[in-house]
Amino acid sequence: MLSRVTQVSQDARQLVMWDELGAGAPTLMAFAQLCSGALASNRTEPDKPLDDEARAILYAARHRGFIEIKGVNHAFESSERFLTVCVELDLERQLIFKRRDDPELTIRFLDGFRQLCAGGLVMHHIYRDFSLTRPGFELARSIPGDSLAVLHQLAEEQHLGEI
């Protein structure tokens, strides 16, 4: 009789794990752990120069500092289900670092976000919510916007006007 209870308990845990996988929890947890490690070791700058994608995320977040990692697990298109970096530009606008027909670009931006986490430029708050750290804000405000062609292309495609 005990083995049936154990089996039900294991099945329930597997179901919870499956739901967590569907929400991107392992990747979100990895980003949060990178942020936590950087915070604990007092890291305030990356070990190597940031890629253009990381610099674009920083620049876009320079005013409000709010970054969210979003995913849509029920989208029809496979690339639409990818986790995506989203930056709140102001109270009314959000820049989504994704291009439906270019999944590699979405992955490059996720890697750029990883660089920001590991470099101590982003901190984790709750679930999908991250923000720039003080050094992140400082670096973001020093980046010349005209050097980020991909950022301006995405903003134009999303009809966001000036970033």
Shape: globular
From the N-terminal CA to the C-terminal CA, the straight-line distance is 63 Å
Rg, Cα atoms, Å: 18 Å
Sheet bearing the most strands, described? Answer: 5 strands, antiparallel
Helix coverage percent: 40-55%
User: What is the multimeric organization of the chains shown?
Assistant: single chain
User: What strand line-up does the widest sheet have?
Assistant: 3-2-1-5-4
**What's the order of the H and E elements?**
HHHEEEHEEHH
What is the number of E strands? 5
Which structural category fits the helices and strands? alpha+beta
Low-confidence stretches: none
Strand content: 5-15%
Mean pLDDT value: 88
Give me the number of helical elements.
Answer: 6
Q: How many domains?
A: 1
Give a quick summary of the entry:
With 163 residues, the protein is an alpha+beta fold.
Give structural notes.
This protein is α+β, with helices and mostly antiparallel strands and 163 residues long. The protein has one domain. It has 6 helices and 5 strands, in the order αααβββαββαα. α3 (52-60) packs across α4 (103-118). The mean pLDDT is 88.
